[in-house]
Amino acid sequence: MDVYSTKVDDAGVAHLVACPSLTDLGLSMTSVTDAVFEHLDKLPNLSDVDLTANRPVSTEAVLAFEKSHPKCDIEWYRK
Known about the structure:
Elements: H1 10-14, E1 24-26, H2 36-40, E2 48-50, H3 59-68, E3 73-75
Parallel strand pairs: 1-2, 2-3
């Protein structure tokens, strides 16, 4: 699922928890913050997340999620 360059925020991602079979999620250039990881944590089949160009997402939060979810590839950089 790709919601690239939309106004989706953390609350919007919370609704995706109802889709446990979701494997790929494109959140590049959205309004998510570090709080998005509490929702991503509830998606057991997530294997690829694109968080590029989301300035409020911190390096620390990305690294912590990667460490606790080694099978999930996080694409990320700040813009």
